[in-house]
Amino acid sequence: MLDSPRTPADLLTATLRRAPAAPLLTSYDDLGGGRVELSAATLANWVAKTANLLQDEFDVTGGSTVAVALPVHWQTAAVLLGVWSCGATVLDTAAEDDGRLDEADVVLAAQDRLPPLEEQGLPELLGLSLHPLGMGMTGYAGPARDFALEVRGHGDVFTPWQRPDPGAPGLLLGGLELTLGGLVDTARELAGRLGLVEGDRVLVDDRTAAEAGPVAWLLAPLAAGASIVLARSPDPSLLPGRASAEKVTATLGRTIDGIRELGRPA
Fold first, then answer.
1. Domain definitions of the chain by residue range
2. CA distance 139 to 11
3. What pLDDT digit, counting tens, does each position of 161-187 carry?
4. Which end of the chain has the least Cβ crowding within 10 Å, N or C?
5. pLDDT tens digit sequence for 52-101
6. Which InterPro entries does the UniProt record give (predicted)?
7. What is the Cα–Cα distance from 107 to 125, expressed in whole angstroms?
8. How much is the mean pLDDT over the chain?
9. Which positions ≥6 away from 119 have C-beta within 8 Å?
10. Residues forming a β-bridge with 251
11. Largest Cα–Cα distance in the chain?
């Protein structure tokens, strides 16, 4: 295991070495339907393919900026970690307007956000259907390239052209700016403040995750050695049963009887 992860990509590598086959990210979608479970190895495979797509097709590397106009989703986790694996900066526009997209070298956006983006003359635009099983876009005839179709042809192992620099910009989110190393440091600090511990299985809904940001819902669990159960558009009546079935040990932003709520006194 890496003794001291220095970038978000290192956090995933440490998890992969520790427990490659264990569930790392489980997603329920009460709007689109279905359950998807990704082990560390499976998520790492998606991350590698995403990073290879970005590097090989769009020359994304240290100094590049990739706009991510995506809601909280398991594919969003792969995209974020793929960008950081390249050593590039994520411009997170999931919770803000698109006024800064002209700063980006590549834009990855949910299919329902594509029409207004197409009018901006962005240099490179990739669309994601956010299908629960990662399938491609349907009913779309615009100029954006389909992420699901593009990513499949790329390799399962990623080697960056340049080793990611922990001091390089890693995240631009509203007024927040963090380096790649700062993302790791912030994730560790937040994991400690929340009371996350190794082996925790954390349930978080997409609304809470969107408000908290990717450091809270994705990187802090990785930094702590925890796994994630993501509930998209959840039916509240189903959450206790799912928490039991998934052996959830903690929740973020949700109260479920008998399960500790992160950040709240015991």
1. 8-261
2. 37
3. 999 999 999 999 988 899 999 999 999
4. C
5. 999 999 999 999 999 999 999 999 999 999 999 999 999 998 755 556 78
6. ANL_N_sf, Rv3268
7. 5
8. 93
9. none
10. 203, 261
11. 53
pTM equals 0.95
What is the tens place of the pLDDT at every residue in 190-223?
A: 999 999 999 999 999 999 999 999 999 999 999 9
Tokens 């240099």 sit at which residue? 123
130 close to 111: Cβ distance less than 8 angstroms: yes
Question: pLDDT tens digits for 2-29?
Answer: 458 899 999 999 999 999 999 999 999 9
Residue 239, both tokens: 């959450």
CATH of the structural domain 8-261, one choice from 3.40.50.150, 3.40.50.12780, 3.30.200.20, 1.10.630.10: 3.40.50.12780
